[in-house]
Amino acid sequence: xxxxxxxxxxxxxxxxxxxxxxxxxxxxxxxxxxxxxxxxxxxxxxxxxxxxxxxxxxxxxxxxxxxxxxxxxxxxxxxxxxxxxxxxxxxxxxxxxxxxxxxxxxxxxxxxxxxxxxxxxxxxxxxxxxxxxxxxxxxxxxxxxxxxxxxxxxxxxxxxxxxxxxxxxxxxxxxxxxxxxxxxxxxxxxxxxxxxxxxxxxxxxxxxxxxxxxxxxxxxxxxxxxxxxxxxxxxxxxxxxxxxxxxxxxxxxxxxxxxxxxxxxxxxxxxxxxxxxxxxxxxxxxxxxxxxxxxxxxxxxxxxxxxxxxxxxxxxxxxxxxxxxxxxxxxxxxxxxxxxxxxxxxxxxxxxxxxxxxxxxxxxxxxxxxxxxxxxxxxxxxxxxxxxxxxxxxxxxxxxxxxxxxxxxxxxxxxxxxxxx
Length: 421
Ligand SMILES: [Zn+2]
What we know:
Layout: H1 3-27, E1 31-36, H2 39-46, E2 51-56, E3 59-64, H3 66-74, H4 122-135, E4 140-147, E5 153-159, E6 171-177, H5 185-200, H6 205-213, E7 214-219, H7 224-232, H8 286-297, E8 302-308, E9 312-315, H9 327-345, E10 350-353, H10 354-357, H11 365-373, E11 377-382, H12 399-419
Parallel strand pairs: 6-7, 6-8, 8-11, 9-10
Antiparallel strand pairs: 1-3, 2-3, 4-5, 5-7, 9-11
Helix pairs in contact: 5-12, 9-12
Zinc ion is lined by residues 179-180, 183, 307.
């Protein structure tokens, strides 16, 4: 090879081979910060070529690399990666010094962000589930049912009396959250259901009765890699973080179950860049494998999968508009759940067969649970109703009311499982 050819070869090697891997690594040093939307800041930002995430409520949110952070400092633009207003900071904290309180982005890049506010990150879910187990060791047991692609634990919380024992004859219920990364509220409800059952067991005879007769399995965060990506990088990410080996990422876990998988290209996609990519094979993903394996070990009578948004309770089939043989029962259960939820805050949840209510889906968790195990299964699409009401964004202030209205519906589901064991 001539020197020129070697140079070209090396250049190609760096661009094609090392470039993407270096980019992928640097990617993880990025953080999201906000700056006040003042005319001066807007004018300065115009020439800085930053990755503007959104412009919302008087703040401009930026996906910032360490270099970008330096640019912000050089331009004397105050920024923060903290969701709190600076004035709300603890008075005893040195950060409250006027000169310091906003310049904390670079130092805390690898630390946990609070941009997810009251919503739970992976680490926050982890500490919550173990704290619950420590507080109620006879009622709560944490299980690791698998690992994500980025080696995060997939946690299941088992709630029952004599929780250490596998009690023959008790009804079993499965509740999951966060198949889809950007659906943050779908983590909160399952987590709160677990806390509610444990914390009220001693004082509420009805809850004690249910927990004594059932084993409730709760997987609050099935897609931790995706969730972390939505917190740190891209709020609208939906899939897991599978590297599809063609510069596209992610499989949609809720199109990856082995029932009518890939039935058509309307209910899922064979194209890896699609947000509903079903993966190369059914159960190709560790997240869905974990649910498959948990089902094989347990004897669930009913399963509920939390998602948002749409404010609707949907049930199989998703892959076709034809009703299932269980249609009447599914409609009765969904209508009872909706009625009990409406009584809490007056919020009305619609209900109906998935294939008719939203759009066709194949390879979904609920179709699989009914199709393979013959049990009633529901997708609970949490508020809001539509994009105009916020879409995937639920204001933090609404978390308590949304989780509270779901409690009576979940208690009903547990009652049903006990009665139909
Ligand atoms: Zn979803």
